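Deliverable D5.2: sample structural annotation.
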Amino acid sequence: MGLTKAKLEIEKEIGMSIIDVLFNPSEYQLTDSANYSEKKVPGLDGPLFQYISGEATELSLNLFLDTYVPKQPTSLISFGTPPVSTDVSAITKQIADATSIDGSLHRPPEVTFRWGSLHFRGIVTRFNHTYTMFTESGMPVRAKVSLTFKSLISPRDRRRASPFESPDRTKYRTIRQGIGLWDIAGMEYGDPDMWKMIARENGILNPLDVRPGQVVKLPAL
């Protein structure tokens, strides 16, 4: 079985533009992150962190592009036209076009990077290219490319992977050690500030007075 080459597939109005990578990357990096906000609650030594949302997974990698063909001695040239070097910027331009709006699609195209078990579908958010070799006429024939992609995941897929309980019905929760009303409000309603609504529903005057084992009613929104 031969060496599997990485491929970039760039969406077009009809079909795909496929770029075969001559040299596979030596490594790639996948990054996941999340957004949090700080909530300051009276009576606590430090802020609470409220989860806001997850970020799309990022893929970062470097590619080496080479279109240089060494000149062959005349004595070694057989019948037919010998291969010649081509302008490597023709390839980098195809990748650069993926960072701007495609007139026919009315948005930047989707790009899929395929290599082995990695099939990463997303959009190109960063593209840097450096030309490192030129012919005597100044035509670039080698380039180093740095790419960053962000994955495309639909809200439906996110909810399927991490479903939330519905906040539109009345529920009851038992207070556990180290858990306050603001923690429950953040988990149930997505906003720690809504601890006041829970306190009001349960006749709690001071949120610091709740104790482990106490059952509180969570009103429907």
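Annotation notes: Confidence is low (pLDDT under 50) at residues 158-164. The radius of gyration is 28 Å.
The annotation will be released with the project's public dataset once the embargo ends.
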